[in-house]
Write a structure and sequence with these properties.
By secondary structure, the protein is an alpha+beta fold. The protein has one domain: Metal Binding Protein, Guanine Nucleotide Exchange Factor, Chain A. The chain is about 20% helix and about 25% strand. It is built from three helices and eleven strands; from the N terminus they run αββααβββββββββ. The strands form three sheets. It has a six-stranded antiparallel sheet. Strands 4-3-11 form a three-stranded antiparallel sheet, with no helix packed on it. A two-stranded antiparallel sheet has the order 1-2. A hairpin with a 7-residue loop joins strand 5 and strand 6. The longest helix is centred in the N-terminal third of the chain and has 22 residues. The protein starts with a helix and ends with a strand.
């Protein structure tokens, strides 16, 4: 009965999300802010530690910047925030990407580019290029959306309460540009018990280089 209820609940959510996506409706998304790079995090590893000055103190970004983890530098960096207008978003993104990232839309389940992807690499924000998720933390949730049990680094995503569609959920956004990514739930696998349910349209995949 519990499993059947969950399946029905997921079906209802998918239908509501599809209707919202098709209508192009939703909350106005936060304007994109910055582009950045972030690092892969192997499954089972602890979250990346902050890069400091070598004296036991943690480096802090200057005013007007956001602190994210960079794979290229293998540490945390301060990236300047960039805010773009809604018109710029329409010009730079496809209609599907715009509805999801800027208007809080949800793509229909089992239709996105990455829901069944098994390639090794990094999933980046489609709006600004910030690394968001390592493929090694991706798992098959059976929901029809790309699912991860943690972000590449806690600082690279933001969460906030979302009460749309008649339910309370935790929305996930890119911490650099504010793009809507999806939602996070507490029914994921170990070691975190979390399920980051993310729209493919909010992601850009960078294949792992050998």
């Amino acid at each position: 009965m519990i499993q059947r209820t969950r399946i029905l609940g997921l079906a209802a959510l998918a239908a509501a999300g599809a209707a919202l996506f098709a209508a192009g409706a939703g909350r106005p998304g936060a304007a994109p802010q910055t582009a950045g790079e972030a690092a892969p995090q192997a499954a089972g590893e602890a979250a990346p530690q902050a890069a400091g000055k070598g004296d036991g103190t943690e480096a802090k970004p200057a005013a007007g910047t956001v602190r994210i983890y960079s794979a290229e530098r293998k540490g945390y960096v301060g990236v300047g925030r960039v805010r773009k207008s809604d018109e710029e978003g329409k010009e730079e993104l496809t209609p599907e990407q715009y509805i999801v990232t800027r208007k809080g839309g949800t793509e229909p389940a089992f239709t996105g580019k990455y829901w069944d992807s098994h390639e090794a690499g990094i999933y980046k924000c489609v709006a600004c290029g910030t690394d968001l998720f390592d493929s090694r933390t991706k798992f098959d949730s059976g929901t029809g959306w790309p699912s991860f049990y943690r972000p590449i680094a806690p600082e690279n995503v933001d969460t906030r309460s979302d009460s749309t569609l008649g339910m309370i959920r935790d929305e996930v956004r890119c911490s650099c540009c504010g793009a809507h990514l999806g939602h996070v739930f507490d029914d994921g696998p170990k070691p975190t018990g979390l399920r980051y349910c993310i729209n493919s349209a909010a992601l850009r995949f960078a294949e792992e280089k050998e």
